[in-house]
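Wait, mind explaining this?

_____
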Amino acid sequence: MSAHSARNRHSLVVFFVLLGLGLATLVGYYQFYVPYLEAQTSSAQRTMILMDTVVDVRVDGRDSEELIEEVFAVMENLEGMLSRFIDGSDVANINERAGQWVKASPITLEVIELGLELGERTGGVFDITVGAVLDLWGFGSGRYHVPSEEEIASALDTVDYTKVEVDRSQSMVRIPEGTVLDLGGIAKGYIIDAGTQVLRDANVERSIVNAGGDISVIGRRPDSLPWRVGVQNPEKPSQIRWILPLDDESVVTSGDYQRYFTHDGVRYHHIIDPRTGLPARELTSVTIVGKDAATCDALSTAVFVLGWKEGRALIESLPDVEAIIVSSTDTWISPALAKVVTE
């Protein structure tokens, strides 16, 4: 079994600041936007590693340096609560004491409840209790493994979001014994939203929070046009396939080559169908555009699992959510997004 570049957890969405009418190169970015930032005493930018990816924050407005520091502090603190891979996090504690009531922060309970709500909204294909199945395949540890049918069946016995109990009055949560809570399908989006909210509360003119290609923006570009984001071609990841505008919105993509490994010539990716315990196979990528990154994060996974027909139906049933859904043979772009996306 050979691990591929699957451990690169960057999103399929690649962030490009596009300041012309078409796709600009990074040279265009440095020629226009960076000089603009340097000319503004109230503009700042900083990059650091969080959530196992590169997080870049750019802010225009008063006290931008201080605000960026606050954004990263908030995001780092939330990662320390919500990642099950960080010792002492709320989620790690909940998993270690599965079967018992465990005290957790109100924020952790909020994210869990949002995950449960999205589980209901998606008919259970977004399930925050899928951690044992992910671990079985090795996507939690990087020790990849193709499990047997018996192993999958045993792990699936631990998966059921409806059995998660939350007691808001006591700030406590309980999961069934043997269940592994995993907020990875929603936590990054929530953390991006929290960082963006710091900036909204400070009334910044414009900002970009880009966590490995999952992006949330405030305002518009310096030329008063919407930000433009390039979405990779799933068949040729080094190429940009679509350009879409972003205006006080978020965008998240899930794809079958973000994290994967190959075994006996077969590629196994990390987007697991919680109904079968197997990688979802019908689609190759799903890009979601909406008002908040947490919802986009969860929906990109859910639509990927639902597949071509049911995934489209879910998007069409939701207000203020747009999507690009790609299979190996076809592409569907939701009607409102199709009016503004370019290739």
Observations:
- The two ends are 37 Å apart (CA to CA).
- The chain is about 35% helix and 25% strand.
- The first strand starts at residue 2 and ends at 3.
